[in-house]
Amino acid sequence: MQLNDMSLLRQQCYIDGQWLEAINGEKVEIADPATHKVIGSVPVMGTTETKAAITAAEKALPAWRALTAKERGAKLHRWFELLLEHQDDLALMMTTEQGKPLAEAKGEVAYAASFIEWFAEEAKRVYGDTIPGHQGDKRLMVIKQSVGVTAAITPWNFPAAMITRKAAPALAAGCTMVVKPAPQTPFTALALAELAERAGIPAGVFSVVTGDAIAIGNELCSNPVVRKLSFTGSTPVGIKLMQQCAPTLKKMSLELGGNAPFIVFNDADIDAAVEGAMIAKYRNAGQTCVCANRIYVQDRVYDEFAEKLAAAVAKLKVGVGTEAGVTTGPLINSDAVAKVQRHLDDALSKGATLFAGGKLASLGGNFFEPTILTNVDKSMLVAKEETFGPLAPLFKFSDVDDVIEQANDTEFGLAAYFYGRDISLVWKVSEALEYGMVGVNTGLISTEVAPFGGIKSSGLGREGSKFGIEEYLEMKYICMSV
Ligand code: ADP
């Protein structure tokens, strides 16, 4: 990997403003999921190093929280600018360790940076309240204060944005943070730390610890100094972390799995629906938690939609993300490929029709061809589990109430999408979908200005928007007798 600025490729952890090896010197090599070539190595840290990072965050807290919001915002703004100045290098690093096409990686860097810019500004808008007194001599106020030391555990599918979406509001609010990135994508996380250091964010305010997920996770969850944990990842791990955090009663934000329905009604603009489905299904090779997992198409437009979707899928180019024109990179690893194959085989064995794709791409390895299945029904695994790959199952429906029931028939409640034009239908369906986010006539809903998050088994809390900073603030009620 040839970066313009090779010092962004850090192979040590960043704790208390220092670049460190693991105490026992252990390292792990990280490979490119497209080529299997080793990119470099990172330390395998555990409990002791995590404790040190938490202690550093505790030590850094008083001075960081005592800065004015404007002062903290200025440092965050510099961090934001540095991400954009190094957008090309960060994108190349991300493509190399994660696989997504370079254009998508550049988009993610901009998206990741946008959270830092947004919360640099929001820091100044942490307003309190005054409340009319309940007795003549009482004056009541509410002020908001930072939660304190926080921790984040992040996934590999958005190696930069899932960190900044947590760290930016935390730091803006006056919290300090220890991050454990996904084992597959440590370099982007460490590059963010390098840029935070260059932005003048003080030692201990933002640390990154790589290594043994269980040991690091245990310490982050059980250490009483940590007052909040923010996690993005799978529902089973989220539940485990919540259990581990219970004895110390930490605040929690959990962004967990999804099983997004994508509904196309008879009166939809079909070309627009196809365009939206392409983004909602095939972006990041289908590896986003808001990816359309079940596509429901109403009977009169089912065939037209399937054909137009297949035509669009035929234009996708599978390959190594750094190559020109590639739209679909590899999946993250062989387990991910096996899961898509399992969902495909299960559907075919229960009567689904292979409408497009369906093979491991000719490149082999972790590549999987973008695929469409028709004649899908709810007995199949694709109806129940998140595929997390480039497989689009098309369910046919005729009745509106029936499709709403099917769309809601899942433990998950992150994102849902639908295309239709009748205004009363649009309202009815928007309100009836049991999801934290609904895209109406659009397949792309993520932005730093809106609250991202789910209900049911998809998690707790919201990230981004004016609401996102609340997750890192405590309310204090002051009752004054005058
Ligand atoms: P995925 O299947 O997408 O990798 P996971 O939920 O397994 O999702 O992983 C998301 C993040 O959670 C990663 O950083 C991973 O290392 C971390 N993780 C997984 N298991 C644990 C655990 N038991 N304790 C702490 N962190 C964990």
Task: Please provide a brief summary of the model.
Belongs to the aldehyde dehydrogenase family. This protein has 482 residues and is α/β, with parallel strands linked by helices.
Q: Could you characterize what this model shows?
A:
- By secondary structure, the chain is α/β, with parallel strands linked by helices.
- It folds into 2 domains: 6-256 and 458-481, 3-Layer(aba) Sandwich (Aldehyde Dehydrogenase, Chain A, domain 1); 260-440, Aldehyde Dehydrogenase, Chain A, domain 2, CATH 3.40.309.10.
- The protein contains 15 helices and 22 strands.
- The strands form 6 sheets. The chain has a 7-stranded mixed sheet with strand order 14-15-16-13-12-18-19, with helices on both faces.
- Helix 4 packs parallel to helix 5.
- The chain is globular, with a radius of gyration of 23 Å.
- The chain starts with 12 loop residues before the first strand and ends with a strand.
- The model has no long low-confidence stretch (mean pLDDT 97).
- Bound molecules: adenosine-5'-diphosphate (ADP).
- Residues 153-155, 180, 182-183, 213-214, 217, 233-234, 237, 240 line the site of adenosine-5'-diphosphate.
- The site of adenosine-5'-diphosphate has 13 residues, from helix 7 and helix 8.
Low-confidence regions: none
**Which of globular, elongated, flat, extended, rod-shaped describes the shape?**
globular
What average pLDDT do the residues reach?
Answer: 97
CATH H level of the largest domain: which superfamily?
A: Aldehyde Dehydrogenase, Chain A, domain 1
- In total, the number of domains comes to 2
Number of strands: 22
Distance separating the two termini = 66 Å
CATH domain class name of the largest domain: Alpha Beta
The helix fraction, in percent, is 25-40%
CATH architecture heading of the largest domain = 3-Layer(aba) Sandwich
SS-based class: alpha/beta
Oligomeric state of the chains in view? single chain
